[in-house]
């Protein structure tokens, strides 16, 4: 396990060891190529083989596309794309050399599959990962290496809460409360995501249970991608346009 947060890393490693797992850790910024290569070296030395890779790190901030600076743009690309390519290449070479195949899982996002105003570069990089997975699934398929993605929507975590606090009043409120009226309105399954909803997809794709699945994406999003604009309004149920009482309230309000 590699993570920037040394304390969280140590706590998670201790939890895994208590469950009987053998763990190697590296407190690194995965976006630093030398540090990332060093981590893979550590894994070689300790385990002598590599069967599964899960690329987790990613993140964003809300900004109008026209306001994103060159530095911000570069950060979004490096955090959500460049290091994943690097990490996947380091793993695929080892898996191919090992001759036993393998499974590579990438964390993308619902935003890879729909428009994301205010998050355009992040969404484009996540879409790029989904496409990378598709191409690599084909290219690495003959070596028995499977490549898939997991695309969550709203799962309260430290990273999400930071982004949500700047992503409009509804998102900020949603990040602060375990359950709010927006859940029933916008999520068909009626609740926000939990880390274990995402983890169970990763576990499935990492394991032989998904041994014949490659080049695809699992969507632990409560049905949000499927709903694509349909919201479940109180009393009237699912509608793709707001009810009249909402329109009445909006009428006459000054434009933002
Ligand atoms: N939480 C959500 O609602 C959500 C929704 C869609 C997609 N995702 C995607 O899922 C992934 C995980 O999201 P999250 O909300 O758990 O993220 P998070 O920001 O809470 O961080 C997850 C872990 O990554 C570590 N980390 C962050 N930057 C790092 C770096 N540069 N080097 C090494 N470690 C680093 C953090 O310390 C943390 O332990 C991301 O790729 C994100 O884009 C999350």
Q: Which helices and strands appear, and what pairs or packs with what?
A:
Blueprint: H1 6-18, H2 33-47, E1 52-55, H3 70-98, E2 102-107, H4 120-139, E3 145-150, H5 158-164, H6 169-176, H7 181-186, H8 195-206, E4 217-218, H9 224-227, E5 231-233, E6 237-239, H10 244-250
Parallel strand pairs: 1-2, 2-3, 3-4
Antiparallel strand pairs: 5-6
Helix pairs in contact: 2-3, 3-4, 5-6
The site of nicotinamide-adenine-dinucleotide has 21 residues, from α5.
Quick overview:
The chain contains ten helices and six strands. With 256 residues, it is α/β, with parallel strands linked by helices. A four-stranded parallel sheet has the order 1-2-3-4, with helices on both faces. A two-stranded antiparallel sheet has the order 5-6.
């Amino acid at each position: 396990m590699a993570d920037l947060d040394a304390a969280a890393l140590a706590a998670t490693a201790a939890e895994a060891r208590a469950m009987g797992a053998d763990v190697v850790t590296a407190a690194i910024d995965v976006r630093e190529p030398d540090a990332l290569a060093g981590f893979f070296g550590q894994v070689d030395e300790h385990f002598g083989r590599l069967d599964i890779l899960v690329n987790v790190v990613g993140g964003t901030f809300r900004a109008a596309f026209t306001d994103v600076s060159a530095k911000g743009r570069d950060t979004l690309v490096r955090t959500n794309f460049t290091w994943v390519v690097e990490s996947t290449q380091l793993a695929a070479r080892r898996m191919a050399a090992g001759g036993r195949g393998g499974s590579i899982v990438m964390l993308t996002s619902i935003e890879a599959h729909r428009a994301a105003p205010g998050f355009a570069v992040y969404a484009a990089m996540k879409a790029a990962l989904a496409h990378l997975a598709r191409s690599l699934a084909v290219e690495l398929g003959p070596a028995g290496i499977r490549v898939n993605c997991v695309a969550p929507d709203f799962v309260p975590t430290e990273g999400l809460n930071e982004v949500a606090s700047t992503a409009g009043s509804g998102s900020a409120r949603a990040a602060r409360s375990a359950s709010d009226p927006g859940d029933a309105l916008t999520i068909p399954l009626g609740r926000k995501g939990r880390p274990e909803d995402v983890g169970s997809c990763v576990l499935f794709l990492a394991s032989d249970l998904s041994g014949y699945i490659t080049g695809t994406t699992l969507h632990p999003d409560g049905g949000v991608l499927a709903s694509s604009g349909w919201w479940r309004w109180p009393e009237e149920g699912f509608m793709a346009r707001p009810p009249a009482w909402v329109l009445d309230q909006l009428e006459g309000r000054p434009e933002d």
